[in-house]
Amino acid sequence: MQKAQDYYPDCPEAFLISLARTGDRKAFAELVQRRQSQVRNLMRRCCNDYTLADDLTQQVFLKVWLSIRKLRKASAFGGWLKRVAVTVWLQHIRKKDALGEAGEMSGSELAKSDTTGMILDLDRALVKLPNPVRLCVVLSYNEGMSHREVAELTGLPLGTVKTHIRNGAHQLQELLSAYGDPSEAESS
Amino acid sequence: MITNNQDQILQSAFAEARQDLDDKALTASIIAKTRKLFYLLAGGAVAVAILLLTGTWLIFGLPLLEFAVLISQFMTMALFDLGEGWLALALMPINNIASLVVISAKAIHLGWKKLIGGSFTH
């Protein structure tokens, strides 16, 4: 006999969120399974350290588990998850700042066998950007968010966000071409 | 200045970098952590409750005990002085304030029931 949980992979996300709100761990596991790739990609672009990115992803989902009951609309889950992820990332940066390790993004765990040259180039280029600039650029280009949405999410003034994205994109372009960006060949 | 072409290159670079990172082990690890977190929070709540109860008992325990003794002494006070003979012994169970309180409460309860029952007869 099939259990109700066996149908979770086919359930709409809103339904899973409602179940997770009542404390259903299986429903939450399905939510994590569906959304982890998005959060891990965001964290990888932000921190350039895959082990750290996975640790931060776990922190994000633990925070989500603890406060999912506060989420009023299931449709707002995606945006809320991004907000939690950004908060976790900002807290991590602040902790690093407090420990005097600001800017120490070595990317020691970067070289992975499943990582293509383009991703390596992009992540290496991203890590050279200052933290706030990198976050704005990642949210804009990786998450496809508008400048206003980035400003709301990060709490930075809109003008600052625009400047960060413009400067960051410019620096990234230069850094990517310096790495011998494969997309350069495409564009030329 | 970033041109549209350069911006497209950046966008495609980010799109290319976006990998499908489904990992069942990570999901299992997160769920295991939620379970641990639950036990940790539940354990913390129990510990705090025990501490609060112990603290409350230490602060209010003795005054509450004294209050209870005073109440019991007051409740067993005789209503009528019947001396120390057999009559006093026989009426002891009802010749006190506690029995008066119980009988009064019962009378009020019966009266209330009659009053309520009467209002629903018609």
Q: What is the compact description of this entry?
A:
Chain A is mainly alpha-helical and 188 residues long. Chain A has helices at residues 13-21, 25-47, 50-67, 77-98, 117-127, 131-142, 147-154, 158-178, 182-187.
What can you see in these coordinates?
The complex is a heterodimer of chains A (188) and B (122). Chain A is an all-alpha fold. Chain A has 2 domains: 1-103, RNA polymerase sigma factor, region 2, helix turn helix motif (Rna Polymerase Sigma Factor, Chain: A, Orthogonal Bundle); 106-181, Winged helix-like DNA-binding domain superfamily/Winged helix DNA-binding domain (Arc Repressor Mutant, subunit A, Orthogonal Bundle). Chain A has helices at 13-21, 25-47, 50-67, 77-98, 117-127, 131-142, 147-154, 158-178, 182-187. In chain A, α1 (13-21) crosses α2, α3 packs across α4 (77-98) and α7 packs across α8 (158-178). The relative contact order of chain A is 0.10. Chain B is mainly alpha-helical and 122 residues long. Chain B folds into 2 domains: 21-75; 79-122. Chain B is built from 4 helices and no strands. Chain B has helices at residues 4-17, 24-75, 86-91, 97-119. Chain B is elongated. The A-B interface holds A 25, 28-29, 32-33, 36-37, 40-41, 45, 54, 57-58, 61-62, 65-66, 114, 116, 118-119, 121-123, 141-142, 166, 169-170, 172-173, 176, 181, 183-184, 186-187 and B 1-2, 5-7, 9-14, 16-24, 26-31, 33-35, 37.
